[in-house]
Amino acid sequence: MCRSIACNYVFTRDSLAHTIKMTKNTFSRVRLFVTLGLAALLTACGPSPEQVAREESMKKLEQAAKEIEAAGKRMESGVAKGGQDVGAAVGDMMKALGGVAGAAAGAAGAGSFEPVDFRKLKEALPQELAGFDKGESSGEKNNAFGIAVSEAKQSFRTADGNKRVRFEITDPGSLSGPFALANMWMNIEVDKETGDGYEKTSTVGGRKLHEKWSKSGQRGSVKMVVGNRFMVDVEAQGLEMNDVKSLISKIDIAKLESMKTEGKKS
Which of 181, 177, 179, 178 is nearest to 44 (CA)? Predict the structure, then answer.
């Protein structure tokens, strides 16, 4: 009997831990899309009534994301304490998720999508990289109470481990509306510099990129929106920034473009 209870507890604890991780992964992207979308709206001149309505919805989405983050921390704390107060935290999470569902619908408007299968996204990722050993390959689809996001990742590293590269493609699916605003954000000029590096927007091959570089450990990242839908992200360590930017060409952009209307909901 006690053994059964112990097994059930472990199962519940692990299930909650997985749910927390999945939810946090999904809503870290929600926060990114909201931030980028609001940035685009704030720079627009003379917003239309539709833009104003979307801005209000996105502000609600941002608030709901904060509430979810707080509930997630309470859930983690409760699990660590053996289940204490987990029920109340789950209730708060459910309430916040309900707010997200409504706000996301208002922010997205028309043009929401069912995320592309992550296995298809993986086909657009490079499978080999000269001078590097192939590392971990992964993909998943997170669906947190009606908000679905799929992602695919592929990593590489040199034999000595001094150089590392990670490619990632994210399809926000049901959040494609606010994500389209993220594409507008890519037209905003960013140019910041510190003693350790810089952050700026640039254009490579006719596409707008957001790049960030840190001299500490030679860490660089490049982000790009493809097809007004997919987020392409390349992160590297131990490479020069020009080399990091050139890695974006290793992703099959044409394949992503061909999938930009896949799964469109009526």
Answer: 181
| Helices and strands in the chain: count of H runs, count of E runs | 7, 8
pLDDT for the residue 110? 45
Element (H, E) at 138: strand 133-144
Tokens in use for 74? 């309470």
Per-residue pLDDT tens over the stretch 226-264: 887 888 999 999 999 999 999 999 999 999 999 988 888
Q: How does residue 10 score in pLDDT terms, banded at 50, 70 and 90? A: very low
pLDDT averaged over every residue in the chain = 74
**DSSP result, 28-78:** HHHHHHHHHHHHHHHH-SS--HHHHHHHHHHHHHHHHHHHHHHHHHHHHHH
pLDDT tens-digit series, residues 105-162: 555 554 568 889 999 999 999 999 999 999 999 999 987 656 678 999 999 999 999 9
CA atoms within 13 A on the CB side of 144: 31
d(CA 49, CA 68): 29
What pTM was estimated for this model as a whole? Answer: 0.66
